[in-house]
From TrEMBL:
Organism annotation: Cardamine amara subsp. amara
Gene3D superfamilies: Phosphorylase Kinase, domain 1 (3.30.200.20), Transferase(Phosphotransferase) domain 1 (1.10.510.10)
Entries under PROSITE patterns matching the protein: PROTEIN_KINASE_DOM (PS50011)
A GO molecular function held by the record: kinase activity
Protein kinase domain ranges (all copies): 44-211
GO biological process: response to temperature stimulus
Protein name stated in the entry: Inactive serine/threonine-protein kinase ZRK12
InterPro entries: Kinase-like_dom_sf, Prot_kinase_dom, WAK-like
SUPFAM superfamilies documented for this protein: Protein kinase-like (PK-like)
Keywords associated with the record: ATP-binding, Kinase, Nucleotide-binding, Transferase
C-alpha cells in the first residue's frame, strides 16, 4: 500500500502544480479562495457517492453530479468526472478550476467552492441550489418570454468572459448541458474545460481556428 500512497501523493502534487500554473497564466495569480477537500470529506458529504445523493437530472455521459452538505455549506453540488474520460479531464481540469474561481462572483455562473485531487477521477464542488435542471431538459416547455430571459443570461455570462478580465476568454463549450436553470429561473453556466484566453495580438477567429 505504500507505493499506492506515494503514487497518490505524486498525483496530488502534479495537479497542484498545474493548477498554480493556470492561476498564474489565466488570473495573474489572483483568484477567489479555492478550498481543497480531502477524499473522506467528499465521501461523507455524498454518503460515499450513494445513488440517493446522485442528481439524475444533471447526468452527462462523462460527469456524475451529487448533492450533499458539510459543516460549512448546507447545500453543495459535487461534479465527479467519469473514468472513461479521465484523460480528457486531466488535461483541462486545472483550467476549469482556475477560471471557475475567477467568475464565481458573477450570478450567471455556478459558484465554485473547491475541489478534491485525492480521487483518480477529478472532483469539483459548487454552492448548491434548491432546484436545478439542465437547459436542454426543459427549454421546450418554457414560454418565449422566459426563453428570451435565459438567452439574455447566457449572453451576459459570455460577455463577462470577454470583457471582465485583462485577457478576454473564449468559452468554446457552448452546449445546453452546461447551462443549469436554478430555482429563481436564472441560467448558470459551468465547465470551463475548453476555455482559452486571447493573448495580445490574437483574435477570436484565430482561437476558433485552432480549436
Amino acid at each position: 500500500m505504500e507505493w499506492w500512497r506515494n503514487k497518490k501523493k505524486k498525483q496530488n502534487l502534479e495537479r497542484g502544480a498545474k493548477l498554480l500554473v493556470e492561476l498564474i497564466e489565466c488570473c495573474d495569480g489572483k483568484s477567489n479562495p479555492i478550498k481543497f477537500f480531502s477524499a473522506p470529506q467528499i465521501r461523507k458529504a455524498t454518503n460515499n457517492f450513494s445513488k440517493s445523493n446522485q442528481v439524475s437530472e444533471l447526468y452527462k455521459f462523462y460527469n456524475k453530479w451529487y448533492s450533499g452538505k458539510n459543516e460549512n455549506h448546507p447545500m453543495i453540488l459535487i461534479r465527479k468526472s467519469l473514468d472513461l474520460f479521465y484523460g480528457y479531464q486531466e488535461g483541462n481540469l486545472c483550467c476549469d478550476i482556475a477560471i471557475s474561481s475567477m467568475v464565481s462572483g458573477q450570478k450567471n455562473f455556478l459558484k465554485l467552492v473547491g475541489c478534491c485531487f485525492e480521487f483518480e477521477d477529478p472532483v469539483m464542488v459548487y454552492n448548491g441550489v434548491r432546484k436545478h435542471d439542465q437547459l436542454h431538459h426543459i427549454i421546450s416547455r418554457q414560454p418565449w418570454k422566459r426563453r428570451m430571459m435565459i438567452a439574455e443570461d447566457i449572453a451576459t455570462a459570455l460577455a463577462y468572459l470577454h470583457t471582465a478580465f485583462p485577457r478576454p476568454f473564449v468559452y468554446r463549450h457552448m452546449w445546453p448541458e452546461n447551462v443549469l436553470l436554478v430555482e429563481d429561473g436564472v441560467a448558470k453556466m459551468n465547465d470551463f474545460s475548453y476555455c482559452v484566453s486571447i493573448s495580445k495580438g490574437e483574435t477570436f477567429v484565430k482561437v476558433y481556428r485552432n480549436y
